[in-house]
């Protein structure tokens, strides 16, 4: 059943009409030598609810996360490591799914400074911790798609939510 749901969601996402829904904002390609992570999340929940939950989680996550801007279909934030040495830009683009009324979220975290491309999963954990702490990993229809090619250090990540 999950395979059918995933196939349906991907099919709808690839071939749905874009006349009523603007395409998601493209992500800039990461600057070479900057660690990054890109992930795609699917939810069976409307984008307005997902976006609001992510914004609220950024706001309550203390000094490590700072909200830069929040629009209905785009959120930008910054993350700074507890020691203040490393900083990352985080973006979320939200696209409503036409048939299911759910949401497709494109998320990215990119290190600002010159770092090793293998960041031990730091950029992945920036994204995952926001999801985990907000409870969105338990939201209806939640599915995550990423890998080592799209998310450097993904296999090494040991997130402490």
From TrEMBL:
Q: In terms of domain of life, where is this protein from?
A: Eukaryota
Q: Which UniProt keywords apply?
A: Signal
Signal sequence annotation: 1-20
Q: What's this protein's name?
A: (Atlantic silverside) hypothetical protein
The organism is Menidia menidia (Atlantic silverside)
